[in-house]
Amino acid sequence: MTERRGRGRPRENDSDTSAAISRAALQRFAAQGFDATSLREIAGDAGVDVALISYRFGGKQGLWKDIVSQAGTDLREALERALDDSETTGAHKRLEHSAHAFLAYLLDRPEVPRLLLRDITIDSDRSKWLLETLSLPLHRHFIELAQAAAEERDKTPAHLEFRVANFIYSAASTVARRERLGKLVGGMEDDAQFAAALEEVLVAGALIP
Amino acid sequence: MTERRGRGRPRENDSDTSAAISRAALQRFAAQGFDATSLREIAGDAGVDVALISYRFGGKQGLWKDIVSQAGTDLREALERALDDSETTGAHKRLEHSAHAFLAYLLDRPEVPRLLLRDITIDSDRSKWLLETLSLPLHRHFIELAQAAAEERDKTPAHLEFRVANFIYSAASTVARRERLGKLVGGMEDDAQFAAALEEVLVAGALIP
DNA sequence: GCAAATATTCAACAACCATTGAATATTGAT
DNA sequence: ATCAATATTCAATGGTTGTTGAATATTTGC
């Protein structure tokens, strides 16, 4: 596999600095939003020069897209794993398993829903990318499961697609606003309590009525 | 009432240009977000010079706060009106009325939830202002009603506060993402159909189980 | 119409931004 | 040790931003 043109060998640390940049960028983008974050901030956090970011990722937008598509891949894998784990069970159980895996992913990487929440804007190149990379696959996944679950019980729930979309986004935005929520509602600091409320209200209440 | 120090009289058109600026700013902030919007864009839309904005509103942040507190006042008035209209009925009916009025307000001024959605960020001066000006009063209003409604039926629903907070934010973000939702779910273009789905899923399903 | 007060514009500022091209450092194969 | 290739930094650039102070226009009481 001699893909390289030069005679030298690339460094091994390559991905180290790239990973540091990605990590810092995800934090900053999630906390402050794309427009309020400067490449200089990210470079400072990652301990590299600003120019390196443009060199590696082809610019600010390129860095953002890289982060989002990485998150999309991770999420897709988590969902497929959940599907494999519950292959033999009924449709209803599989839906429950997927919902649980989705919530677990969000709780594990709260920066992702925060970033999602910020960049689901109306007029922006990024939002289209976000819709296709994250929202659409997720939506299709849950629609399919929810329909199978409904058929299994011989039900035809009203606004099923609307309900699914609402579940996905409510879950993401609730996790994203968790700290803020803590100032309005008690018990948000405790991880287990928060997860239980999420599961009960959003899954059992909104998704699977 | 001789509050003025000068001898001349101020213009009458004052509020005209101010209103034009506010209107343009609300549109831009809602569509693009605070940071992605420049005062020059807003001034262009409103047909005035950039400097006028800083002169009138004391800067970009001042303009933003002015818009938000205006929206807060409008919303509070709409809710009080709904409360007056259903004063004699039961607690459950009053909760329903308030929820309906809230949804109607959001549908009537979709820029407000869009702005809300964008600026509920983690690290920002504006988000605190937003929380206190819009979120907190709204939350208190619905908590009170929901608790009264629960007592009326001798129920103690689990996670009541969490459920209320989720209702408020789900409603706001669903309206804010309506156009995007249309690409995932059918029937979002029709106003009546969209309102019906909102009412059924969010009010009857999530808020009043 | 004069004068005072406010509204609006004009012009300029300093700060910051992302990006780029050249210069340097580091790596690994030979 | 040498050399080529990549990784990283340095320095500069053109553009945009929000704000400010001076200049002009407009309004209204006298």
From TrEMBL, chains A, B:
Keywords: DNA-binding
Pfam family name, one: TetR_N
UniProt xrefs under InterPro entries: Homeodomain-like_sf, HTH-type_TetR-like_transc_reg, HTH_TetR, Tet_transcr_reg_TetR-rel_C_sf
SUPFAM superfamilies recorded: Homeodomain-like (SSF46689), Tetracyclin repressor-like, C-terminal domain (SSF48498)
Domain HTH tetR-type positions: 15-75
Gene3D superfamilies per record: Tetracycline Repressor, domain 2 (1.10.357.10)
A molecular function GO annotation: DNA-binding transcription factor activity
Signal peptide: none
DNA-binding interval(s): 38-57
TM region positions: none
Protein's name according to its UniProt entry: Transcriptional regulator, TetR family
